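Here is the promised in-class demo. Please do not try to memorize the tokens; focus on the logic of going from shape to residues.
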């Protein structure tokens, strides 16, 4: 029997000498075609098998199914599989692998159940395929059942099966069971350690992931690139990007995942300049070239910085180095929102024109782009066009549209949801509550809230804040109590909303009591926003001396929100001394804000202290500060006209058209 050692020679040999090959040689060639995913040559071998009269041979048919499966020819593999009177475990494995590899996870699990119904006993090659399907579809219950099958079949100590179990349990959120599987393994390889470390990182157990790295080294196994990339990801998720950078420096040849993970980490904590610097460093080295994920990550940083020039450079690079269609499909959404954030109306529209209109991501990006551009009218028009195109809204669409709706539009959107039977995510209901609240319909907001089957912390925060801004502080406090009784743990934003509700409703003592309970009952250290709520509450009530005492006792340095709340209260209650004190701090904290000078000047003027009022105005002018002009909007049939209103009056020659 002939044996070939050079794969190109094997594949070129097929088609010219097949007529003289034996069944064993045909079988060998099928295996080579499987390993090379050489579908064309595999079909030629199939033709020869038919000519040899081996088409209905069960063994050869199974090998063909494996070949077509490995070449991702789903139709041919299934046609042959369906012709087998009793498919064996090898044929089932090929079909299960094909389903799993192509993301058809539910079909894979259904096929696995059918295989068992037909009495075919799974083996160590079957289990990794179906466990991967469980991991990707987050089917923990199905995975637990398969784990029982593994124990019954005696495959619980096979290395590949154990690695797949660790991966399945980790991705389904059960890191504890994944660790039990890991600890019971009689043999471990680098994939075992990487799977366990990755499982800890994905489930937020970053300290355990770092500890696992130390254990791995103590057992004499050095981490590979996958291990180090996972640790970088863990540090970045903790916000410890300096530590992540230290691990990155240990890698001799970082791959694109290494670079992208580090860039994304710095971007996530708002250090976009560093993220862009890492991208430039990668490009200068020239060893690794950015993929779609890297380009999306750096465009996000450009968007947040308003770095239009850098964004354009990345845009140009993406167009030059790949297919325009693939580029815009993978990074178009990030690019579009970057241009929108930078105020580039036409560039935003140009990117949208090049994106796939059959994809909901395209429409969501354009709707958000119009919102970022301040064109809520066009965002709603875009939403309407999307509906007309037959594209079904998702939770991102609705969460973007609800905040820009007026009451009439919001009610229409709400009716659309009911009419189409949307199975909505919690964040959409939260956005709907916020819309009704913003439009003054607090009753409708509460109706939506009370009808929600599941409420998260944002749901409670939104409804508490809604009653707060409508001056119904006692209801807000009652809702806070109900939230605690429901088992949902309040967070810092919850208490800020409740304290704001007390402030707006004149519930000063209740607000102070809640503030004091943060440390005693909830083990919270108050944020600067919560300190500002108390100052605002005391100030609104005219208890300015208490506000000053409270500020002086603060364990953190008061910022502009604290002194700003006090200055606003002093203006209302006409307290000159405390007003001057607050203003002097604000002059230092935000020297470019003319509003503070004008507020203090007005306090002096109302008290008849004209010399002091003029002195403050002159100080403002000497520092080159001007109060921003107000603007009013006049809608006509064809356009929107801006009229600019100065402090003294209307400037007639400052009219313009907003396009």
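The designed amino acids, position by position:
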């Amino acid at each position: 029997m002939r044996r070939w050692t050079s794969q190109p020679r094997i594949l070129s040999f097929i088609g010219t000498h097949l007529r003289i090959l034996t069944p064993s040689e045909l079988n060998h060639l099928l295996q080579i075609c499987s390993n090379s995913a050489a579908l064309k040559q595999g079909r030629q071998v199939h033709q020869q098998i038919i000519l040899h009269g081996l088409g209905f041979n069960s063994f050869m048919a199974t090998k063909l199914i494996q070949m077509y499966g490995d070449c991702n020819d789903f139709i041919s593999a299934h046609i042959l599989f369906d012709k087998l009177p009793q498919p064996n475990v090898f044929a089932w494995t090929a079909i299960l692998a094909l389903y799993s590899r192509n993301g058809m996870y539910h079909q894979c699990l259904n096929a696995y159940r059918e295989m068992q119904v037909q009495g075919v006993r799974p083996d160590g090659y079957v289990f990794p395929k179906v466990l991967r399907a469980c991991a990707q579809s987050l089917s923990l219950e199905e995975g637990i059942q398969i784990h029982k099958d593994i124990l019954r079949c005696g495959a619980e100590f096979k290395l590949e099966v154990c690695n797949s179990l660790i991966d399945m349990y980790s991705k389904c959120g059960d890191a504890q069971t994944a660790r039990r599987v890991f600890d019971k393994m009689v043999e471990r390889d680098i994939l075992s350690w990487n799977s366990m470390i990755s499982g800890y990182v994905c489930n937020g157990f970053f300290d355990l992931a770092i500890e696992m790295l130390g254990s791995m080294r103590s057992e004499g196994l050095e981490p590979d690139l996958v291990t180090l990339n996972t640790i970088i990801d863990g540090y970045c998720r903790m916000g410890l990007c300096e530590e992540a950078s230290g691990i990155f420096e240990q890698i001799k040849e970082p791959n694109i995942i290494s670079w992208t993970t580090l860039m994304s980490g710095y971007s996530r904590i708002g250090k976009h300049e560093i993220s862009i610097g890492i991208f430039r460093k990668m490009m200068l080295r020239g060893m690794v070239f950015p993929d779609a994920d890297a380009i999306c990550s750096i465009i996000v940083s450009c968007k947040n910085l308003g770095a239009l020039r850098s964004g354009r450079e990345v845009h140009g690079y993406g167009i030059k180095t790949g297919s325009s269609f693939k580029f815009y499909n993978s990074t178009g959404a990030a690019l579009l929102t970057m241009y929108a954030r930078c105020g580039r109306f036409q560039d935003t529209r140009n990117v949208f024109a090049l994106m796939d209109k059959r994809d909901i991501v395209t429409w969501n990006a354009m709707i958000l782009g119009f919102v970022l551009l301040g064109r809520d009218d066009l965002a709603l028009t875009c939403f309407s066009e999307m509906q007309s195109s037959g594209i079904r809204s998702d939770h991102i669409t609705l969460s973007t549209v609800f905040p820009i709706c007026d009451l009439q539009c919001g009610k229409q959107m709400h009716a659309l949801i009911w009419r189409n039977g949307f199975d909505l995510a919690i964040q959409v209901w939260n956005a709907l509550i916020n819309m009704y609240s913003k439009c003054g319909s607090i009753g409708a907001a509460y109706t939506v809230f009370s009808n929600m089957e599941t409420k998260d912390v944002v749901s409670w925060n939104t409804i508490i804040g809604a009653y707060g801004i409508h001056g119904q502080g006692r209801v807000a406090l009652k809702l806070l109590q109900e939230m605690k009784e429901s088992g949902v743990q309040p967070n810092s934003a919850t208490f800020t909303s409740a304290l704001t509700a007390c402030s707006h409703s004149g519930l000063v003592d209740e607000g102070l009591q809640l503030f004091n309970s943060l440390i005693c009952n909830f083990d919270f250290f108050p944020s600067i926003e919560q300190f500002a709520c108390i100052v605002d509450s005391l100030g609104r009530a005219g208890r300015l001396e208490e506000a000053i005492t409270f500020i002086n006792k603060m364990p953190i340095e008061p910022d502009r929100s604290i002194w700003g709340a006090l200055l606003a209260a002093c203006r209302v209650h006409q307290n000159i001394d405390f007003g001057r004190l607050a203003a002097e701090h604000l002059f230092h904290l935000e020297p470019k804000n003319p509003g503070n000078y004008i507020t203090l000047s007005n306090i002096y003027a109302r008290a008849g202290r004209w010399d002091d009022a003029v002195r403050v105005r002159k100080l403002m002018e000497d520092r080159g500060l001007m109060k921003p002009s107000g603007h009013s909007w006049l809608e006509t049939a064809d356009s929107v006209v801006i009229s600019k209103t100065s402090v003294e009056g209307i400037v007639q020659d400052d009219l313009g058209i907003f396009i």
